[in-house]
Design brief:
Layout (H helix, E strand, L loop, with lengths): L1 H31 L8 H25 L7 H14 L6 E3 L1 H12 L1 E4 L2 E6 L2 E7 L4 H5 L6 E5 L2 E2 L5 H9 L5 E8 L2 E8 L1 E4 L3 E8 L2 E6 L6 H14 L4 E5 L8 H11 L5 E7 L5 E4 L11 E5 L6 H11 L4 E4 L7 E7 L5 E10 L26 H14 L7 E3 L5 E3 L8 E2 L7 H8 L2 H11 L2 H8 L3 H7 L4 H13 L5 H6 L1 H17 L1 H10 L3 H7 L1 H9 L1
Parallel strand pairs: 11-12, 12-15, 15-16, 16-21
Antiparallel strand pairs: 1-18, 2-9, 3-4, 4-5, 5-6, 5-7, 7-8, 10-11, 13-14, 13-18, 17-18, 19-20
Helix pairs in contact: 1-2, 1-3, 8-9, 12-17, 17-18
């Protein structure tokens, strides 16, 4: 017990040292960005010292008086840091070292690993998606293989989070994976390598001369990925582009600015960063972009956020492209990260950005109310019709600001990016959503298509374009899925019939994901997306916008 107390004191001292300098750092930076004009720096420093001492006193009193043993002082301190930051706004937050590493990996375009995604069937962990050309693929691991051991630790009953953690902790960056393949146990020593995480998750030629590209986020690699994708579509005679930003969660400011410049002319403004006067900056394009005359249209929805909204608003304000879809999320804040020596970090809101015309992107939390008349009754008929259409589809707040571009197009301000043409997202219906979230779709696809070795070999030999054009879900497969659901007491006939087209499309897209990754999934999904027919009707006006 004495040794335990000694160890606790050492850990507490370490936590104190770590926590103290972290809270001082966080507090100092927060106060620097708060408007406390009546207080001198000396007064602020005294406030910080008092609050830090309070925090230390609380930890000491907890150590000496709390009735339970084995208190995790690091964890409770980190919870306190996050509560402090979240009290400012919902976007400022604290990251543990592990959380921050995962966050950085998601936006740098690659991660250290073996290129393997897991799926849990009952208590068994299975290989689901194997990155083509990645470390796991190179040793012969395939979708459907059962994962028995990772680094000699038994995996039965474990989940994907456990598997990923164990792989990241591999000694000498070599993961030892034991799989059960065709009834035989096989052990592989797999070196961890940087595995690409593409942000351009789909690119394909839809028909004739229309190209399609989907961007999931703006990572450090996105500009290179995007230019490669566009150039490849131009080479196969694409003359019009659909740029899909639906569900795009944002990303790096510098990256989206660089990408926006590719499509703008010299002198066009990309975005205005507005914070403290010292941080205010207007980003202007210095030269004509590589694709400044290439016609395209942007797809957006209510989940398009942050950097995705910077891009969409820059294209709208500069009369560069139309936006089709839904009003976007409305996240217009500038967030900056500070990293500590131990790998943990925190993110703080330091300002906001507005569009080139001055439209605020940050959406206020307001209820929708009826629009009480036009602010300018002299608006041309076409602009009035545009506004009436938006009001009909969205509902808007009183006194919503209206902006007019150089070419006379009407745009709404007031938070988020309002589309030029409204189109409701083709969402996943409720029964299929439940089947997906509970793993039934993934499990059935593995059982029916992947674990059938003859079927799997046939599918693996197909190129994506061949799969998209020629592979269809058979009636036998549909009947098999019905029986599978009946056996698990989750088959509801009227729901299945009502959503059958979506269910069949999802089965095909899931197979495509296992074979080709995100590119396969989204390429399948877009084939049945009703928004594409709407895009075709808007091609002429999109091309005319560039010519004007």
């Amino acid at each position: 017990m004495k040794n335990g107390k000694t160890l606790s004191k050492k850990l507490l001292k370490k936590a104190f040292n770590s926590s103290s300098w972290k809270i001082v750092s966080i507090a100092c930076l927060i106060i620097l960005f708060c408007k406390q004009n009546l207080l001198s720096n000396d007064s602020l420093n005294k406030i910080i010292d008092i609050q830090v001492q309070k925090f230390r006193n609380i930890l000491e009193i907890v150590k000496d008086n709390y009735y339970k043993e084995d208190i995790d002082f690091v964890s409770i301190s980190e919870n306190a840091f996050n509560s402090l930051l979240q009290s400012l706004d919902k976007f400022s937050q604290y990251f543990s070292a592990t959380q921050y590493k995962n966050y950085k990996d998601s936006y740098k375009g690659s991660t250290l690993g073996i290129g393997l995604q897991f799926f849990r069937r009952g208590d068994t962990l299975m290989a689901f998606y194997v990155v083509k050309g990645g470390p796991a693929d190179s040793v012969g691991i395939e979708a459907g293989d059962k994962i028995i051991y990772i680094n000699h630790e038994y995996c039965i009953g474990k989940d994907a989070n456990f598997a990923n953690k164990k792989i990241s902790e591999s000694q000498n960056n070599v993961a030892v994976i034991t799989v059960k393949k065709d009834g035989v146990l096989k052990e592989f020593a797999i070196p961890l390598k940087e595995v690409e995480i593409p942000s351009v998750v789909a690119r394909l030629k839809l028909e004739k001369d229309i190209g399609y590209i989907r961007i999931s986020r703006f990572a450090l690699s996105t500009q290179k990925e995007l230019t490669t994708a566009i150039d490849s579509l131009i080479k196969i005679s694409c003359k019009f582009l659909i740029l899909d930003l639906r569900g795009n969660t944002g990303g790096y400011l510098d990256e989206v600015i660089s990408i926006s410049k590719l499509f703008l002319k010299k002198g066009d403004t990309v975005v205005i960063v507005s914070g403290k006067e010292t941080n205010r900056r207007v980003y202007v394009n210095e030269e004509d972009g590589k694709y400044a005359r290439f016609p395209f249209i942007i797809l957006a929805d209510e989940n398009t956020a942050s950097a995705g909204e910077i891009f969409a608003s820059a294209m709208q304000d500069n009369d560069r492209a139309y936006v089709l879809g839904e009003r976007t999320y409305g996240k217009g804040l500038i967030l900056k990260n500070w990293e500590f020596k131990d790998g943990s970090a925190f993110r703080l809101t330091t300002g906001e950005y507005v569009s080139p015309l001055g439209r605020k992107i940050q959406k206020e939390t307001l209820d929708k109310v009826e629009f009480d008349g036009f602010p300018d009754l002299t608006l041309p008929q076409q602009q009035r019709e545009t506004i009436e259409s938006l009001i009909k589809n969205f509902g808007v707040v009183n006194n919503l600001p209206i902006f007019v571009t150089k070419k006379g197009r009407t745009l709404f301000g007031g938070g988020g990016v309002f589309p030029d043409f409204y189109f409701a997202s083709d969402t996943t219906p409720p029964y299929l959503k439940k089947l997906k979230s509970n793993g039934y779709v993934n499990d059935f696809v593995l059982r029916f298509f992947i674990e059938d070795s003859k079927m799997f070999r046939k599918l693996k030999n197909m190129r994506l374009s061949e799969f998209l054009d020629n592979f269809e879900i058979s009636n036998d497969a549909i009947d098999g899925f019905k029986k599978y659901l009946i056996q698990r007491n989750v088959f509801v006939e009227n729901y299945f019939l009502e959503e059958s087209d979506k269910i069949v499309s999802e089965l095909k897209a899931t197979i495509a994901y296992i074979l080709y990754g995100d590119s396969g999934y989204y390429s399948c999904a877009i084939q049945k997306d009703k928004i594409i027919s709407r895009v075709k009707n808007l091609r002429t006006v999109s091309e005319n916008l560039v010519k004007q």
